[in-house]
Each structure stands twice: as C-alpha cells, then as structure tokens.
C-alpha cells in the first residue's frame, strides 16, 4: 500500500525497474516483462502469462505496435475491445492483478491497460445440488461475468441493476448486488450495503464466506439467506423484488431476504402443473416432518406412552428388543449417529471408492448390527426412513438444520416423552417465528400475514397470483 | 447470552431432576391381554388371573425359543386390580401393565355376588385399565376359563378375543359390553346391563335347538377348542340375575338403538308347511322408540322396527318366489313370527326381571325437564313394568337370493 | 431492522383468543360445572355468555370510542389514576390467582394421567419453563406460533368430536335442564369469570395493525371458543350419562380413552394428548404474557418482559401451596371464581357511566 502515490515516470527504464521489483520478476515465474522496440519508439509490456489471452496479445497488441509506422496514440493503435489509460502506479498494479496487459511507452507519463484477460473457469454445467427434472438445467459457474450474463439473459431490462460493492483489502473483492431498480426495497438494499461495508477482515474470497459475515444470527440454527446455484431460481427471486448477491469465484449466489418457505420450495414446484407441484410439495412437507420427528416420537412412545401402540405392533417391538442390550434412546442415537457417519463419509470419500462405502455401510450397519442384536430392526427402519427423508430437503442449507434439530428432539423426547418433546417443539417453533431475515419475519407470509402470492405450503394457480410478496415492501406490489 | 445461561442452567437440571422416573422400556413390561376375576371364600378378596402375552412367540423378526408358550397365566389374590398386579409381580419378572387389557372375565359366581359392584367401583380410578375393555361373564371360574381356552388358529391370545368378540357381536348372539357401558347403565340405575356369556365346559346333555336358542355351554359343538361364546348375562343394579339365550340377546340388541347389529342368518317357520324351516339373512334397521308418557295413567311404548330379509333356502319348495299371494302370506307371517317372539321376551322382562336391557329409559327422558322429575317418575320400578308395549315390525324388503324359481321337488322324485 | 411494523392481524388474535378461552373445553372445568348441573353442563357456557355479552360489548364499545387506549390506560383515563389503578390491580390480581390455580390444575392432570411417578413440582417447572421461553419471545411470536399450530389443533378437535359421536347417545341430553334451569343460570352467573381472558386480551387493543383487526379477531376467536366449549360439553354429556359425568375428573381424557379407531388402534388417548398439550402450552404462554403486560401497564414499567421470570417463580411457589388436586379444584378454584365473577360482569358498566359523565361535563 505504500506506493499509492507513485507516479509514472517518463523514463521507461525507471518504470521497468519499479514494476519488476514490485512484482518480483524472476521469482514470479509467470510474470512477464517484455521490452518492444518498434519503428515509432520503445515500449514495455507487463503481464501475467497465465491470465491473459496470448493469442490476442500477439495478434492484437504486439503486432500492431511493431508494424505501426506513425506515432499514433496506443488506444487508436490496438485492436482490443477494452483499453484504459492509467495515471499512476496504483492503477497499474490493479490492472496487472486483474489479468490485463499493461503497456508503457518511452517518454509518456501514461500507461495503457489492454483488457484481454483469459481467467480460467469451468464451463456452464448442469446444476448438481438442486436438481430438477422439468425446467432449465444450467447452473452458475465460478465466473462472475458468465453468471451475470446468464441473469441478464433471463431479465433483459434496463431496470436490472448489477451494483458492485467493494469489500476487504488484501485483495479487495467486489460483491455484486443484482436487483430490479423499481422493485427492490431501498431500505433492505441500504441495509445490505451497510453490512457489506462493515466487514473489517482482509479477505472474503467467496460468497459462502460472505454469507457468514453478513448474517444477522451467525449462531442460529436456521440460515437466513438462501444459497442457490440455479440462475432460474435467482432470477425468479429477483423478479419478485428480492436481492441477489454474487461474487467472482463462487458458483452460487445468495438471495436475501429469505423466509422458511424459500428453503422448502424447489423451483420445479412452479414449473410443474399446479396439482403435480403441490403433490411434490406435500411429499416434501411430510418428509420434513418425518425426518424431524420420527425417531423422537418412537422414543417417546416406546418409553413413555406404550398404550398408544396397537398391541400387535407393541408385541413385535417388544420381541425385537428382547435381546438388545441398550435402552431405546441409546439404540436410536447409535443408529442415527451411524447414519450421519455414512453421510459424511459419502461426501468426503473419493468417488472411485463411493460404491464400496455404500455397501459396507449398509451391510455392516444395517444387516449385521441387527443380526448381532445390537439394534432392533425397527430402529433400522426408522433411521433409514428419517435419513432418506432428510435428503428430500430442497436446499442444502436447511439440510443441516433438519439433521441437528432431529438430535435435539431425540434428546428431548427421552426426558419426559411427549411432554418434553412438545416443549422442545414449542421452543423450537417460537424461535423459528421470532427470527427475522433482513427485517422480514421468517414465517411470512403465513404469519404475520401480508398480501403475497400465498406460496407457502401449497401454491395457487399462477394466474391467480396477484401480489408480489408485500412483506418485502416492494415498490410495486401489484403483479398483474 | 442471558438466554444461553438460562439454558445451560436449566437443561442439566431437567436431566438430573427427572431421573427418567416414568420411563419404561417396552421389553421390560409384561402386557396383560385378559384378566379373570373369581370370588374367594374371604369377603372382598378376589382371585385375579392375568393372561400375559409372550411377545417372542408369533413374531417373525427373530426365531422364537421353541419351548416358550405364547402366553403366561398368573393367578394371585387381591382386593383390586392394581394391588393384584403388584402381587403378581412376585412371580413375573417384568413389570405387569394393564393398559392393553382387552377382556375382563368375571366368573358368574362373582357376578351374582354383592361384592362385584364394589370391585368394579375401583376400576375407573385406575389409570391403566382402559374403559373400552370388554366385560365377559364365564360360567365357570375365570381362572379355568383362561386356562382351558386354547384357540387353535390364533397363536396370540389377544387376537382370539378380538376376532371372537367382534364376529359374535356382529351376529348379535352376544352384546357389546365395554366396561364404560357397565358404568353408565349401572350408575343410571334405570336399565339392565347385558354382558357376553362364555364357557369352556360344554354341558353333557346336548340337543339341537334352533340356531340361536342356546346359551353358552349347551351348543352341540365338536372340536378341539371347547370355548363357546353365546348368550348373555343379565345384570340388575350391578348384580347378575339371569342368563339370556342367544335369541334373547339378539332381541335385546335389536331393540336397543345404542347397540349396532350386523346381519345374521336365522331360521323361520315355513307358514304353509310348518314342518319345514326357511333360512334367511336378517338385517334390522335402528329401532324407533317413542314413549307416550302418562304420569297418572298407563304409559305406552311404541317400538317400530324395519327389517330386511334375504331368503336363502326354502326346503319345503313352496313357491314363495313368483306367487304373489304366497309371498304376501310369507311376509305377514314373518312379521308376526318376529313380533310374537319379541313380545314374549318383553313380557318376561316386565314380569320377571322388572326392567329392560334395551336402554329404553333414554327415550322417556325427553318428557322431563329436570333430573329430579325424571328420577321421581322412576322408570325402572313404576313406568316400565306397567307400561303397554306396542311392537310394530315391518318387512321393508324381501329378497330371494340368486334363484328365480324353486325347482319342483315333486317332479324330481318321479 | 423491521420492515413491517405491528404486523399482527386478525388471524393471530383469533387463534390466541380461541385457544385461551377455548381450552376450558378440555380441562376440569366441565367436571366442576357438572357437579351442579349434571348433563346440562353444556348450557352453562351459553348462560355465561348471555351474562357476559353486555359488559364485554360495552367494553369494546368504550375502547372503540376512546381511541389510542388499551384496557389499563382506558380504566385509568376514565376513573382517574387512583381509583383506576385500584380497579386495574383488582383485575390483575384475579387474573393472577386464576393463572396460578389453572396451572396447578393442568400440571396435576399431566402428572396424574401421563407421568404418575414424577413429582408435581418437577412437571410444574418444565411446563412453566416452556411457557416462559415462549412468552419471552414477545406478542408477535406468540401470535404467530398460535396460528402455526392452529391447523393441528383444529384437526385434533374435529377428530375427537367426530370419534366422540360414535360413542354418543343423543338422548342423553334429556332431561334438557339437568338439575334445573335455576341451577344453570346461577352457575352461569357465578362462573362467568371463567372467561375473564376475553377481558384480559383487550390489553393488546393497540398492538395490532389496526384496531379493526383486533375487534374482528377477538369476536371471532371468542365466538369459536364458545362454540367449541359448548360442543365439547355437549359431547361429554352425551358420552357420559348424567350420573357418570359428575364423577369424571378429566372428561376430555376419559373421552379419548373410550373412543377407538377401528380394531387396530384401540388406545388413541395419547394422540389426543398431543394437541391438548400444545394448546395448553400456548394458552399459558399467552396468559403469562398478558398478565405481565397488565402488570407493566399498571406500574408503567418498560420493557415489562423482564418481569416474566420473577412472575414464573411466584406462580410456581404459589401454585405448589394447595396440598392436593381436589382441594385446589373443588374448594379454592370454585370459590375464587365465584368471588371474582362480579368484577368482570360489572366494571364495564362503571366505565361506561364515567364515560357518559365525562362526555357531559366536556359538553
């Protein structure tokens, strides 16, 4: 930071020496410092060989300079789309770091940056984590420009704004806020800008880190921003008046404010016809309930309220538990933990080994544990059911919430059966409704109720969706 | 932070304090499916027999131990249900719970004694014993009944009771008698209560009667399981006073609007050839009872019953099917048969029992504004025994099954 | 940052009022009333409603006329600060005594029916802890959570009523007046303070987006509550006969014990306990919050939420005084209700008279 005010010298060799020291030329293997002697004078080029397009460099930068006969200014000479004049060394450094080619000319107090970067990133691929059968398949990739171009393609309007906010210092990264000018609530926008500016750490590399910096309650069990890798999802939310945060190097975006429903909905629900979409919502809602409560209810019923179980089932459970050496609570806990192990291992394991771990896990933990009388088969069924159900979660962020909450409920129900379980559910739910995400109640629009699309558990006919979510206080409420 | 502190203090407190006082693992409990109660020589001491289901038998999840029986019987002395379970625990290792009890079997000797109602008074305050358990009266000792009742098709004891009682209730030969009904009727003190009658010791003199004129024990049945559910025990003011046959039970169930009855097959006299019988499926609708109450004169009770008959067989081969006149005759005759049968039984209840098991006291209540007036009018002592009862049976539909014409047996014999 | 200020609307108040008033249908209240009226127990809430309606409507009318006041502020405005505070304290104290007695009552039910081996104090503590945490999240959260659990509770209610019908004998409602019309009316008058929550709720008159929503919510909620209370009492009367109903301490739980769901599910009572327990948690959270709110409004302390914890301790201590459930229920609760009933029946008239005088003076 010390060379902020260093100006560009008329002496080319001075500039060359300065840049070469700054960029450790010779140590930094991909830093190229190349002198050029043309008919019109001496030039010097600096660039990272790994971040510029070398083909363009030779065709559109070097050869025009070498072949020029007259002393025309560089911007007129070079056939590249972006060229910028740089007045001081700070700008030069920024340009170099961004992957531009910087050209110095002998006797000139200006340098020029030719924008021919070739930063490598993945091509646009299919969405991996939020799959749909019906609906667009493309996903965000790790290049901000590509991502914004996908969004622009979906929202071609002069009102779609991509606003950059700089955060951090080593290096400064920019966060792009994407919103629709005449929809997004300025209060929320200001709040987000304020939160972004108040980040005091040096580096925030990607959106996943950023999320934790601008969240209201970092210790909370519930995510308050929606993390999505689907451009269609993002642009749908933008069109409703939400604000999307994007960064370079992240193949996802953050959508704020988020409500509990946004974690429950899948974009496919809207692509499917209303009955089909609601059916899949219904399945998913049941799955959420199953994954949260099935093990806890099993413990509560078997340990405290056995009169609720029909006698045939009761005798079946009693028979299968006759030789199990641990109480139900421990039994369920062991199996739930084992299931979490399989899941964690499944994510971390190198893919060639994947099938093996599946077989070993299922075989050892299921079959063998039952045969060895460590657990009863009913518990295996329940744990498999609750584990399977947790995979229906439409969003990865809520997945952890469900899994951790499940353990809370399991522990609660082992204390006092339904009474402590319901107490825990009460506290859990009251916490849920008290959360606010950027000033929006987490359960809106169900409660507190506002005009909206009424898209909560079930959605209505698209034709009948009259209002934008008013809990966001959008500038234009009427959708039709 | 403050909230976190509260949590940190409270949660361990809960765990420590609870000590898991009410937690019971399922396999540590012994589930009683049937309780039998017998009278002993000492007053107000009863013999309780608990039939405990063995979960390991009949369950496919693990291979059962070959020598275990599907049930275990424990018999102890006690003053009430709960203290008896405690006593029984001296022999059964697991904790005995009554929450799955399906049947309470009372020996008829106990049911006829004065102690019975005192025993029953202890039940509602027991949290464990559910009031929807069925009351069954056994002719012999309840302990013997439980011991000798060995169903062949159902391994698990509760299944047997469930199927047996449900099926028998559908046909109306035994009534539906949950414990709760016993309390309503006994405490209401206006009607008689009927409970299923059962036995495992068939009587020696066995003769054929029309299919529902039996009571438990005299059905000429042959088979390995000697258990019979048939007829009912009649309770007046919490004390058993008589036995009703299957037919009488059917009439009671039919006349009681609060009890439901499915269809059943019965025989009726052939009106033209009285030596033969007609077999038909009988289905009665809910009876309509109206009471014409005269505080000073004679009260009249009207009972209208609509019923349906599907005739299955006419062994006499009289052509009731296509001959309109004969069919009309059959129709009138059947209505008269039922009416006579019912009126005979009602007369018995009026004269002999001085009370009715049909829960008809409900229908006179609307003539009173307050309970005091109603109790003063005294249904069971003053109104019913002196009332005039007008039965009206109406056959709404008479069907003859899948046959269009009876074949002429006379021609076949030629 | 809050985008929508005062977000509560009709639906939240509707559910709060409904559960708060309506849970009377599933506790020991019917048993207490049936001791006097036998099978006519279902007429008592109707009688109470008839007595309460004029004074309640008058109170709502006054609140509407004098805008910008809640219950306590209205009383203090109309009666002057000294007498007003005295009356408010009287209301507060009666509500406080009622919550103490009711809580003990519920805890005993849970203890006796579901956890017979646990100590009462311990269940009391857990119950209060849950209510305290729920209440400390504020009115907005309590309102929202009531609305969230509404579908489940409604399902439970309809299910139990439907199942109850299969065991019900409609003729049991006769003789229609039970122990007599006079007894019903006396009981209706004496026990009208059973529904004091309706009056207590008006402390939140200003807390909703518009007073219009408040009025709509409280009328609808109380209406639903009265409807279901009557319907439940009617169900008890026709499921248990008049001789049995006075002996049954917990008619809701007994009803759930008797009903069966086909052959397979013969004991479904615990299922109905779930809805009941959620409803009780909700009711006492709202009650606790309103109580402390009233306290805060009388003594002008803000934020009053910090008084929740001391009040919980006080309730726990006082609630544990009664030596047994029967004493608590039959001697104390009944007498207390009879003493405080006139307050709620009469104070709106006092306010109305003062309001008239004040209006005349100003003219």
Automatic annotation (TrEMBL), chain A:
One of its GO terms (cellular component) is plasma membrane. It is a multi-pass membrane protein. The chain crosses the membrane at residues 285-304, 374-395, 407-433. Keywords: Membrane, Transmembrane, Transmembrane helix. It is found in: Cell membrane; Membrane. Its main location: membrane. The keyword Membrane applies. One of its GO terms (biological process) is spore germination. Belongs to the GerABKA family. This is Spore germination protein KA. It comes from Terribacillus aidingensis.
From TrEMBL, chain B:
Signal peptide: none annotated. It holds the Pfam family Spore_GerAC_N. It is a lipid-anchor. It is found in: Membrane. One of its GO terms (cellular component) is membrane. It comes from the Bacteria. Residues 230-395 form the Spore germination GerAC-like C-terminal domain. Gene3D superfamilies: Nutrient germinant receptor protein C, domain 3. GO terms for biological process: spore germination. Keywords: Germination, Lipoprotein, Membrane, Palmitate, Signal. Belongs to the GerABKC lipoprotein family. This is Germination protein, Ger(X)C family. It comes from Terribacillus aidingensis.
TrEMBL record, chain C:
It comes from the Bacteria. This is Spore germination protein (Amino acid permease). The lineage of its organism: Bacteria, Bacillati, Bacillota, Bacilli, Bacillales. The keyword Repressor does not apply. InterPro entries: Spore_GerAB. Its main location: membrane. The chain crosses the membrane at residues 42-63, 83-101, 113-133, 145-163, 218-239, 271-295, 307-327, 339-357. GO terms for cellular component: membrane. Keywords: Germination, Membrane, Transmembrane, Transmembrane helix, Transport. One of its GO terms (biological process) is spore germination. It is a multi-pass membrane protein. Pfam families: Spore_permease. It comes from Terribacillus aidingensis. Belongs to the amino acid-polyamine-organocation (APC) superfamily. Spore germination protein (SGP) (TC 2.A.3.9) family. It is found in: Membrane.
């Amino acid at each position: 930071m010390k060379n902020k005010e260093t100006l560009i010298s008329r002496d080319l060799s001075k500039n060359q020496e300065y840049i070469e020291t700054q960029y450790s030329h010779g140590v930094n293997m991909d830093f190229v410092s190349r002198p050029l002697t043309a008919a019109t004078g001496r030039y010097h080029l600096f660039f990272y060989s790994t971040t510029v397009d070398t083909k363009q460099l030779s065709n559109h930068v070097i050869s025009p300079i070498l072949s020029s006969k007259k002393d025309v200014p560089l911007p007129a000479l070079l056939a590249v789309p972006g060229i910028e004049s740089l007045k001081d060394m700070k700008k030069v450094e920024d340009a170099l770091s961004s992957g531009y080619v910087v050209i110095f000319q002998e006797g000139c107090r200006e340098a020029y940056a030719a924008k021919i970067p070739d930063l490598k990133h993945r091509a646009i691929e299919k969405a991996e984590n939020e799959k749909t059968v019906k609906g667009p398949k493309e996903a965000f990739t790790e290049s901000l420009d590509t991502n914004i171009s996908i969004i622009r393609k979906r929202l071609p309007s002069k009102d779609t704004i991509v606003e950059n906010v700089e955060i951090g210092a080593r290096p400064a990264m920019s966060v792009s806020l994407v919103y629709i000018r005449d929809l997004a609530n300025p209060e929320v926008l200001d709040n987000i800008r304020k939160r972004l500016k108040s980040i005091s750490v040096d580096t925030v590399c990607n959106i996943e880190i950023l999320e934790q910096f601008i969240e209201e309650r970092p210790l909370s069990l519930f995510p308050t921003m929606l993390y999505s890798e689907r451009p269609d999802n993002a642009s749908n939310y933008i069109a409703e008046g939400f604000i999307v945060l994007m960064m370079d190097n992240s193949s996802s975006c953050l959508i704020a404010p988020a409500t509990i429903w946004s974690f429950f909905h899948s974009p496919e629900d809207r692509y499917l016809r209303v009955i089909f979409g609601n059916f899949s919502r219904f399945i998913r809602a049941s799955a959420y309930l199953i994954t949260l409560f099935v093990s806890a209810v099993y413990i509560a019923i078997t340990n405290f309220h056995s009169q609720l179980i029909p006698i045939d089932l009761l005798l079946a459970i009693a028979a299968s538990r006759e030789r199990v050496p641990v109480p139900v609570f421990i039994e369920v806990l062991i199996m739930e933990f084992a299931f979490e192990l399989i899941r964690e291992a499944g994510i971390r394991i190198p893919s060639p080994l994947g099938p093996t771990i599946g077989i070993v896990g299922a075989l050892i933990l299921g079959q063998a544990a039952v045969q060895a009388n460590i657990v009863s088969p009913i518990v295996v069924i329940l744990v498999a059911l609750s584990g399977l159900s947790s995979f229906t979660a439409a969003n990865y962020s809520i997945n952890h919430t469900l899994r951790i909450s499940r353990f809370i409920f399991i522990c609660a129900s082992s204390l006092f059966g339904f009474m402590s379980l319901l107490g825990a559910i009460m506290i859990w739910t009251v916490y849920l409704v008290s959360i606010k995400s950027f000033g929006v109640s987490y359960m809106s629009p169900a409660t507190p109720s506002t005009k909206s699309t009424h898209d909560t558990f079930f959605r209505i006919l698209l034709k009948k969706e009259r209002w934008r979510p008013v809990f966001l206080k959008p500038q234009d409420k009427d959708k039709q | 932070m403050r909230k976190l502190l509260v949590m940190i203090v409270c949660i361990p407190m809960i765990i420590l304090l609870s000590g898991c006082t009410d937690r019971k693992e399922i396999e540590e409990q012994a589930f009683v499916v049937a309780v039998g109660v017998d009278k002993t020589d000492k007053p107000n001491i009863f013999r309780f027999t608990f039939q405990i289901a063995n979960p390991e038998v009949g369950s496919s999840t693990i291979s059962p131990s070959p020598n275990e029986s599907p049930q275990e019987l424990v018999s102890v002395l006690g003053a009430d249900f709960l203290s008896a379970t405690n006593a029984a625990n001296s022999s059964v290792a697991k904790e005995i719970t009554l929450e799955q009890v399906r049947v309470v079997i009372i020996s008829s000797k106990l049911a006829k004694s004065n102690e019975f109602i005192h025993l029953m008074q202890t039940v509602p305050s027991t949290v464990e014993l559910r009031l929807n358990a069925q009351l069954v009266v056994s002719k012999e000792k309840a302990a013997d009944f439980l011991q000798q009742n060995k169903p062949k098709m159902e391994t698990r004891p509760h299944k047997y009771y469930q199927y047996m009682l449900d099926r028998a209730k559908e046909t109306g030969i035994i009534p539906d008698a949950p414990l709760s009904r016993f309390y309503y009727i006994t405490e209401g003190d206006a009607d008689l209560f009927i409970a299923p009658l059962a036995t495992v010791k068939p009587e020696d003199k066995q003769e054929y009667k029309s299919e529902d004129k039996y009571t438990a024990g005299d059905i000429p049945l042959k088979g390995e399981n000697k258990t019979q559910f048939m007829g009912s025990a009649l309770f007046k003011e919490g004390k058993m006073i008589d036995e009703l046959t299957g037919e009488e039970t059917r009439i009671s169930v039919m006349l009681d609007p609060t009890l439901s009855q499915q269809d059943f097959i019965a025989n009726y006299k052939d009106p033209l050839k009285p030596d033969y019988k007609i077999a038909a499926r009988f289905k009665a609708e809910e009876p309509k009872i109206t009471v014409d109450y005269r505080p000073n004169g004679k009260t009249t009770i009207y009972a209208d019953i609509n019923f349906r008959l599907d005739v299955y067989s006419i062994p006499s081969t009289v052509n009731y099917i296509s001959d309109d006149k004969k069919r009309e005759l059959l129709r009138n005759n059947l209505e008269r048969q039922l009416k006579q049968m019912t009126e005979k039984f009602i007369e018995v209840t009026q004269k002999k029992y001085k009370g009715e098991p049909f829960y008809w006291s409900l229908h006179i209540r609307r003539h009173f504004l307050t309970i005091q007036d109603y109790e003063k009018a005294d249904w069971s002592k003053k109104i019913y025994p002196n009332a005039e009862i007008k039965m009206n049976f109406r056959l709404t539909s008479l069907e003859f099954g899948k046959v269009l014409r009876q074949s002429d047996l006379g021609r076949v014999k030629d | 940052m809050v985008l929508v200020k005062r977000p509560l609307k009709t639906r939240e108040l509707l559910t709060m009022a409904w559960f708060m008033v309506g849970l009377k249908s599933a506790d020991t209240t019917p048993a207490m009333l049936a001791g006097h009226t036998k099978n006519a127990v279902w007429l008592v809430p109707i009688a109470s409603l008839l007595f309460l309606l004029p004074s309640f409507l008058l109170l709502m009318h006054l609140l509407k006329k004098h805008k910008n006041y809640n219950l306590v502020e209205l009383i203090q405005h109309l009666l002057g600060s000294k007498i007003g505070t005295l009356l408010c304290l009287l209301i507060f104290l009666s509500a406080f005594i009622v919550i103490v007695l009711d809580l003990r009552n519920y805890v005993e039910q849970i203890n006796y029916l579901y956890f017979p081996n646990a100590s009462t104090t311990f269940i009391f503590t857990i119950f209060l802890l849950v209510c305290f945490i729920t209440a400390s999240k504020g009115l907005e959260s309590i309102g929202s959570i009531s609305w969230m659990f509404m579908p489940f509770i409604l399902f439970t209610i309809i299910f139990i009523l439907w199942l109850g019908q299969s065991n019900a004998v409609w003729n049991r409602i006769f003789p229609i007046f039970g122990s007599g019309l006079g007894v019903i009316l006396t009981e209706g008058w004496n026990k009208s303070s059973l529904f004091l929550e309706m009056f207590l709720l008006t402390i939140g008159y200003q807390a909703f987006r518009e007073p219009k929503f408040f009025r709509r919510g409280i009328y609808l909620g109380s209406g639903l509550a009265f409807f279901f209370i009557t319907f439940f009492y009617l169900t008890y009367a026709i499921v248990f006969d008049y001789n049995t109903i006075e002996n049954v301490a917990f008619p809701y739980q007994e009803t759930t014990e008797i009903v069966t769901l086909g052959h397979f599910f013969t004991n479904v009572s615990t299922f109905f306990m779930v809805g009941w327990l959620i409803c009780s948690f909700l009711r006492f959270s709202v009650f606790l919050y309103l109580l402390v709110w009233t306290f805060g409004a009388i003594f002008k302390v803000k934020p009053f939420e910090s008084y929740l914890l001391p009040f919980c301790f006080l309730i726990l201590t006082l609630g544990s005084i009664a030596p047994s459930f029967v004493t608590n229920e039959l001697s104390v609760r009944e007498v207390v209700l009879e003493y405080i009933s006139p307050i709620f029946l009469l104070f709106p008239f006092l306010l109305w008279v003062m309001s008239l005088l004040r209006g005349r003076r100003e003219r």
